[in-house]
Amino acid sequence: MTNMPVKPLPDDAVDMAAKAIAAEVAHHIKTMYPGAAEAVAWESCKRSLAGVIRNGMKRLGDAAERGEMESEIKAMRSQRSREDAMRRDMAEASTPAVVFAAIQHNQSN
């Protein structure tokens, strides 16, 4: 295979890619699920999507450079599960003491 010259990536390549992907995701949500877009502060939601995508890309890129991308993906999945469980437990909590107990329980998992 012939090596071809490659133009170096700009310093903000991850940011540029994340913004482009976030725009695609936001367009998809607004087109396919207009009720969801109407139910939230849409501009804030789009900025949040861009941030989450950028942070995920950076996290996985750094992990890939260390040769740990698969384990990082598993860690991200585990973190989402813990956060979902905490939100579920807190939604069912009836007193501040139960909320505190739910937080402690989910942080120890």
Characteristic key phrases:
109 residues, 2 domains, 0% strand
Can you put this structure into words, describing what you see?
- It is a single chain.
- The protein is mainly alpha-helical and 109 residues long.
- The chain is 80% helix and 0% strand.
- The protein has five helices and no strands.
- The protein has helices at residues 13-32, 34-38, 42-66, 69-92, 96-108.
- It starts with 12 loop residues before the first helix and ends with a helix.
- The model has no long low-confidence stretch (mean pLDDT 90).
- Residues 69-91 are annotated as: Disordered.
Question: Which helices and strands appear, and what pairs or packs with what?
Answer:
Elements: H1 13-32, H2 34-38, H3 42-66, H4 69-92, H5 96-108
Helix pairs in contact: 1-3, 3-4, 4-5
CA-to-CA gap between the ends?
Answer: 49 Å
What best-fitting shape do the alpha-carbon axes yield? Answer: flat
Beta strands, count: 0
The run of helices and strands is HHHHH
Region (Disordered): 69-91
Task: Quickly describe the structure.
The protein is an all-alpha fold and 109 residues long. Helices cover 80% and strands 0% of the residues.
